[in-house]
Amino acid sequence: MVVKKRCLLWDWTNSSGPGNPGVPWAMDQCNFNGPISSVSNWNTWVPPELRGRAPYRPMVHLQAQLSGQDWNNVWNSDQPIVQYFNEPDKNGISPQTAADAWYRQMVPLREQRGKKLVGPAISSDENGKNWLADFMRRIHDQPPDFLGLHYYGTDGNACIQYLKEMHSKYPQPIVVSEIASIDRNVGSVYNFTVQLANFMDETDWIFEYGFFGCMRNLADGFVSPDAQLMRPDGSFTDLMQKLQWDQPIAPPS
Question: What is the CA radius of gyration of the chain?
C-alpha cells in the first residue's frame, strides 16, 4: 500500500502570472497516484494547474497573510489543513506576537471553520527550538494539531535524532514542511534524501514532509544545487522522480 506523506513544494513562480509565464504544464508530470500527499506553494492561493488532483496546503507565511485577500483566501479555503508562519524565528516575529495572532485568528479558524492547524515551522537550530518552546508555552491551552519543523543539513542521522528529540518533547504529529541536504556532494545529497524519506514514511508520528524544492532556479546559495527537484526548463530531476515514484527509495548500489 502506498504511504502518502510527501508534500510537493511547488514554487509559486511555476504558476503563470503577470510578467511570469511560469511552467504550469510541468505539474502534468506529477504522479498523484503515488506517495505525493499534497501541494504547497508558500502562499494562500491554489496553483490553478493543480486542478484538484491533490490537497492544497494554504500557508499564513508571515504577518502579511493575516489580513486582506490572503486572509480571505485562508478563511474561505475548502482545504482541511492550514500552515501557520514560516520560520518566524528568522523573520523577526516574536513568540508573543505569534501567540497573539494565534488566539485572535488561527483558533477561530479551527473552531469556526473546522481547520486543522500546523504550528509555526521553525528552523532546527537552538534559536528555533527556544522560539518554539516559548510559543508553545504561551498557547498551551490551544496547541496546534501538528508540529511544524524545518531541517537543512548534511547528516541524516543527526536529522533523525532531531526529529526524535522534538517528538519526545511535543505530542503532536510532525509536519516537516521543508527539508533538504545542503551538501555539495551529489552522492551525499542522494543518501540524505533516501535515508530521510524512508525513515519518515515508516514513522507513524511523522504526518507529512516536503523536500525543498520544485523550482526552476535556486532560491539562494544555501540548499545544495543537487537537491533541486526541477531543472531550469521545467523538467523534473532524477531526485524528484525518485520522490514521486519510489517507495521505499532504493539506497545507492
Answer: 17
**3-state DSSP of 193-221:** HHHHHHHHHHCCCEEEEEECCECCCCCCC
Residue 192 belongs to what H/E stretch? Answer: helix 186-202
Residue 126 CA from chain centroid, whole number:
20
- CB-count burial class (<10 Å; 0-12, 13-18, 19+) for 32: middle
pLDDT score at 251: 85
Helix (H, G, I), strand (E, B) or coil at 89: helix
Say if residues 234 and 26 touch (Cβ distance below 8 Å).
yes
**Per-residue pLDDT tens digits for 14-38:** 999 999 999 999 999 999 999 999 9
Sign of CA dihedral 36, 42, 232, 219: negative
Rounded to 5°, the CA angle 148-239-24 comes to: 80
Query: pLDDT below 50 — which residues of the chain?
Result: none
Handedness of CA 239, 241, 246, 250 (dihedral sign): negative
Q: What is the pLDDT of residues 67-105, one digit of tens each?
A: 999 999 999 999 999 999 999 999 999 999 999 999 999
Nearest alpha carbon to residue 174 among 198, 150, 193:
150
Q: Is the pTM of this model over 0.70?
A: yes
- Complete DSSP assignment for 120-184: PBB-SSHHHHHHHHHHHHHTTTS--SBEEEEEEES-HHHHHHHHHHHHHH--SPEEEEEEEE--S
C-alpha–C-alpha distance, residues 246 and 253, integer Å:
15
d(CA 171, CA 213): 28
